[in-house]
Specification:
The chain has about 150 residues and is α/β, with parallel strands linked by helices. The protein has a single domain, classed as D-tyrosyl-trna(Tyr) Deacylase, Chain: A. The protein is built from 3 helices and 8 strands; from the N terminus they run E-E-E-H-E-E-H-E-H-E-E. Strands 1, 2, 3, 6, 7 and 8 form a 6-stranded mixed beta sheet that branches. A hairpin with a 5-residue loop joins strand 4 and strand 5. Helix 1 packs parallel to helix 3.
Length: about 150
């Protein structure tokens, strides 16, 4: 699994011209899934995200997690995170999981994150054409790959 995490003051997903989900202060999480991903990837990634200290403390230092600030989370599926641009100019998405694999893992990730942050997680709709709006706070943007734990 691969995520792009953005610390936001607010974020929303609009589908077919209607706001589907919105959060205030917290994390916008763009989630890419590959065929090799498992429940272990979900557990590790959800745990990492819930404890990630990227919110400011009283001194302005990044010492607080989403749990500490009681922030919200918005998860949006994004198969393009597994784009390969090795050949030519048109990205290949062969490394992204097919929907029959990705949807159950996406749903399991959302449930795991809800457990880990003790809060309902907002989502987009898997496979929908979505418009994502956000105000990145910082800006703080972090990429995490469960297969490359650095």
């Amino acid at each position: 699994m691969r995520v792009v995490i953005q610390r936001v003051t607010h974020a929303s997903v609009t589908i077919e011209g209607k706001e589907h989900a919105a959060i205030k202060s917290g994390l916008l999480i763009l989630l890419g899934i590959t065929e090799e991903d498992t429940q272990e990837d979900i557990k590790w990634l959800s745990g990492k995200i819930s404890k990630l200290r990227i919110f400011g403390d009283e001194k302005g230092l990044m010492n607080k997690s989403i749990l500490d600030i009681e922030g919200e989370a918005l998860v949006v599926s994004q198969f393009t995170l597994y784009a390969s641009t090795k050949k030519g100019n048109r990205p290949s998405y062969i490394n992204a999981a097919r929907p029959e694999t990705a949807i159950p893992l996406y749903e399991a990730f959302v449930k795991a994150l809800e457990r880990d942050i003790n809060k309902t997680v907002k989502t987009g709709i898997f496979g929908a054409d979505m418009k994502v709006a956000l105000l990145n706070d910082g800006p703080v943007t972090i990429i995490i790959d469960s297969k490359n734990k650095e």
